[in-house]
Structures are given as structure tokens and as C-alpha cells.
Automatic annotation (TrEMBL):
InterPro entries: Arsenate_reductase-like (IPR006660), Thioredoxin-like_sf (IPR036249), Tscrpt_reg_Spx/MgsR (IPR006504)
Taxonomy of the source species: Bacteria, Bacillati, Bacillota, Bacilli, Bacillales
Entry's family note: Belongs to the ArsC family.
Gene3D superfamilies reported in the protein's UniProt record: Glutaredoxin (3.40.30.10)
Annotated organism of origin: Paenibacillus helianthi
Pfam families: ArsC (PF03960)
Matches recorded under NCBIfam families: arsC_related
Protein name: Arsenate reductase family protein
């Protein structure tokens, strides 16, 4: 199996489920604490490109920080560079976990999504 990098928050039950699933699937994991060491703007650009998702999908819209900053209303008026800066400045704003093998990227955790993306033997 492959070596995957997982941007995660150890206290997050979704992250724990994702890590457990990936380990059971036989992957070697490099875990990065998303709050203590959020991805840089450059890393985020690569992750967004590899995911095929819109940048707004990388925001943890149910998180406290997102709500406290009023981003629901502010986000549409921010440019891509400003959004990337915001994400890299606070890992708790990032939807997690983010998993990458250097090419493919998944955001969040759904078992069927993982089976499609990470179950390649």
C-alpha cells in the first residue's frame, strides 16, 4: 500500500475514524496536526488542485472559528489568495481530514469515498 499524508486534528472523531480506516487498509500514514501545523499557502494550492474541488470546500463551515469570524458572509467577497492565507493561518478553519498521496487528495471522511480513492492495492 502507499504512503499517505493526513492533515488531521487528533481530538476529532471523524479524523480518528479516517486514520483507523486507512491503517486497516494497510496504508503507511504521516500524520500532521492541522491546528499546530496547518498546511502552508503553497501546500494548500497543491491540495486544492489535486482534489478537483472548489477552494470553499476546504473550509470547515461547521467549526467555531468559521462562525466566530462570520465567514459565511465574508467568504464570497474574499479572493483566492486571501482565502488561502486565512486557511493557512488557522488549521481549525480547514475541513478535515485532508489525505494525499502527493497526487490525489480527499477532503473529509466518507467510507465510500475512501474505498474509491484509497483502496487501490
Amino acid at each position: 500500500m502507499s504512503h499517505l499524508k493526513v492533515y488531521q486534528y487528533p481530538k476529532c472523531s471523524t479524523c480518528r475514524s479516517a486514520v483507523k480506516w486507512l491503517r486497516e487498509a494497510g496504508h503507511e500514514l504521516e500524520l500532521q496536526h492541522i491546528a499546530e501545523q496547518p498546511p502552508t499557502v503553497a501546500e494548500l494550492r497543491v491540495l486544492v488542485a489535486g482534489s478537483g474541488l472548489e477552494l470553499k470546500k476546504f473550509f470547515n463551515t461547521s467549526g467555531e472559528v468559521y462562525k466566530n469570524l462570520g465567514l459565511k458572509d465574508k467568504l464570497p467577497s474574499l479572493g483566492e489568495a486571501e482565502q488561502l492565507e486565512l486557511l493557512s493561518s488557522n488549521g481549525m478553519l480547514i475541513k478535515r481530514p485532508i489525505v494525499t498521496d502527493g497526487t490525489n487528495v480527499t477532503v473529509g471522511y466518507k467510507e465510500e469515498q475512501y474505498a474509491a480513492a484509497w483502496n487501490k492495492a
